[in-house]
Specification:
The chain has helices at residues 8-21, 26-42, 46-70, 74-80, 85-101, 105-118, 121-125, 133-137, 141-156. The chain has two domains: 1-59, no CATH class; 84-157, no CATH class. The model has no long low-confidence stretch (mean pLDDT 90). It has 157 residues and is mostly helical.
C-alpha cells in the first residue's frame, strides 16, 4: 500500500519499533534498531538509517566487550557467533553503505575501513556495490582505495 501513498501500516510499524528500540534490554533494543535501519534503508530515508546504525554499532561494541570479559559463561558461546568479527564487519559495512547513500563520504570511508579490517571480503564489494557509488564518485577515491588495500595487505601478513 505504501507504493500507492498509503503509509499508515509502515508508520505504525515504525512507531512500534521506535518504542521497542528504547527498552533497557540491549538485545531487544538492538533487534528493533536493526529492523528500523532496514526499513529506513528500504524507504530511502538514509539519514534515519544512519542514526540507527550508530546505535547498532554502539550496542555491538558494548556486547562484544562484555563477551570478552565473560569468556567462560554458557551464554557467551551462544552469543559469540551473533557478535563475531564477521557480524560486526557486516554492521560496519551496512552503516558505510547508508552513509554513502546519505552523502556522508568521510564517515562512510571510516566505517568501510572498519568493516574491511574485520573481514577483508568487504574490500571486493567496494567496486561493485551500488550503495557505494557516491563513495566511488568522490574525487580522491583512487587514493583511498590504495590506502585501504595497503591496510588489508599489512593485516593479512
Amino acid at each position: 500500500m505504501a507504493i500507492f501513498g498509503d503509509t499508515r501500516r509502515v508508520d505504525r510499524r515504525l512507531a512500534k519499533l521506535v518504542e521497542r528500540a528504547e527498552v533497557p534490554e540491549p538485545l531487544r533494543a538492538l533487534e528493533a534498531n536493526v529492523e528500523l535501519a532496514n526499513i529506513y534503508y528500504k524507504i530511502r530515508n538514509y539519514k534515519e538509517a544512519v542514526e540507527r546504525y550508530k546505535l547498532i554499532l554502539g550496542t555491538y561494541k558494548k556486547i562484544r566487550r562484555g563477551l570478552q570479559r565473560q569468556r567462560s559463561a554458557p551464554a557467551v558461546d551462544l552469543l559469540a557467533g551473533q557478535f563475531s568479527d564477521q557480524q560486526m564487519a557486516l554492521q560496519y559495512y551496512n552503516a558505510a553503505c547508508s552513509n554513502s547513500l546519505a552523502g556522508n563520504i568521510v564517515e562512510a570511508r571510516l566505517l568501510l575501513e572498519q568493516a574491511v579490517r574485520l573481514d577483508p571480503i568487504h574490500f571486493s564489494n567496494i567496486r561493485i556495490d551500488g550503495d557505494l557509488k557516491n563513495l566511488r564518485d568522490a574525487e580522491d577515491h583512487s587514493e583511498y582505495l590504495k590506502e585501504l588495500q595497503s591496510a588489508v595487505d599489512e593485516e593479512s601478513i
